[in-house]
Amino acid sequence: MIVLKLTKNTSLTNISKLASVLRLYNSQANRCCLLSVDATCIKPRYMSSEAKRLCSENMTVKKIGTHNGTFHCDEALACFFLRQLPEYKDSEIVRTRDPAKLAQCDVVVDVGGEFDPKRHRYDHHQRSFKESFHSLCPEKPWVTKLSSAGLVYMHFGRQLLAQLTQLKEDDKQLEVLYDKLYENFVEEVDAIDNGISQWDGEVRYTISSNLSARVGSLNPRWNSKSQDTEEGFKKAMKMVGEEFLGKLDYYQSAWLPARVVVEEAVKQRHQVDPSGEVVLFPQAGCPWKEHLFALEKELQVEAPIKFVLYPDQNAQWRVQCVPAGLNTFENRLSLLEEWRGVRDEALSELSGIKDCIFVHAGGFIGGNKTQEGALEMARRTLQAAAQSPANGSS
């Protein structure tokens, strides 16, 4: 056994050399080594105050403040958004209503009674708060009152998407995604948290499976023995984050590329039919509706498009009516009423069009074995509407 005593005269360099020697001895199977260090005898070396200050600042953990107790979808989503940013990646989430503790946070969401972007305070509960996306960004159309999710998305959304997609903040595609994800994801959370209905009057049925409802179900039940909400809030953040990322992936990898397909089809529509009211997609499954409405405005399409044609998975063809709007089951022009609910030979005999397969009872879609047959179904409907405009939408 080798025993070494390091005294105050031993330099740090010598300590390092001795440690190397000891490792050598220790590596031999029949040897053992004991290092006895008199720590009080080693003269300490101090970091300069400036270096210590910089080190301390670099090691400071950012804090995101939000309220404790029952949690909701909006603050769970706001916290998720912030944690995707490099600045808040490793931040601590402080759930409290204590003003003194909130004052120590770098950003506060959904609590505190303040909306002050310069100080990163994003609450919407105060009586004076009436902001919407449109009121804060007049070039945007949405007038739904913002929750903490919408406030954080509005101020950090482009930075968030740039981080997640690797697109630049001034990229046109990023702006399209920014708008799309607010309109089809965040705005719903804003509206529900602020108690804004989708419609006026009594609803016909209840939807209880939306994201906000599922987040709410993660809170403890009123009669549970434990009323702790910390684990539930973590699960809520994970849930809303996964759904947001799933939406983003779909819009970036599938929905955005579809715009190119739809734009080409709109530009080529007069080659499909002289009326310009029928477009053809070479592949099934293309998400076309939102792009079609947007492109009609951008390209200043005079005669609204009534039908789209596309092949189905069985290499047969579909003729589908263009709806009157994105959120309605009414059509700009439905397939002929007398065809609805009729199939196969009976439909071909009734319509005078070969190879018919079906027309849905709702009149919004039909099928034919060939592209020419599907196009003829659209043409006959257009001709009938021109002679009797009462056919219209239904």
Describe the 3D structure.
- Helix 3 crosses helix 9, helix 7 (172-193) crosses helix 9 (230-267) and helix 9 packs across helix 11 (289-298).
- The protein contains 13 helices and 12 strands.
- The protein has 2 domains: 63-196 and 210-250, no CATH class; 273-387, no CATH class.
- The termini are far apart.
- By secondary structure, it is of the alpha/beta class.
- Strand 6 (115-116) and strand 7 form a beta hairpin.
Radius of gyration from CA coordinates: 32 Å
Strand fraction = 5-15%
Q: How helical, in percent, are the residues?
A: 40-55%
* DSSP helical segment count: 13
Beginning-to-end CA distance, first to last residue: 97 Å
Kindly report the spatial arrangement of strands forming the biggest sheet. 4-3-5-7-6
Number of separate domains = 2
Number of strands: 12
Average residue pLDDT = 88
Q: What is the general shape?
A: elongated
Uncertain parts: 1-47
Based on secondary structure, the structural category is alpha/beta
> What composes the largest sheet?
5 strands, mixed
**Helix-strand sequence:** EHEHEHEHEEEHHHHHHEHEEHEEH
Task: Name the quaternary structure.
Answer: single chain
InterPro entries: MYG1_exonuclease (IPR003226)
GO cellular component, one term: cytoplasm
Protein name: Myg1 exonuclease
Family: Belongs to the MYG1 family.
List keywords for this structure.
alpha/beta, 43% helix, five-stranded mixed beta sheet, 394 residues, 12% strand, 13 helices
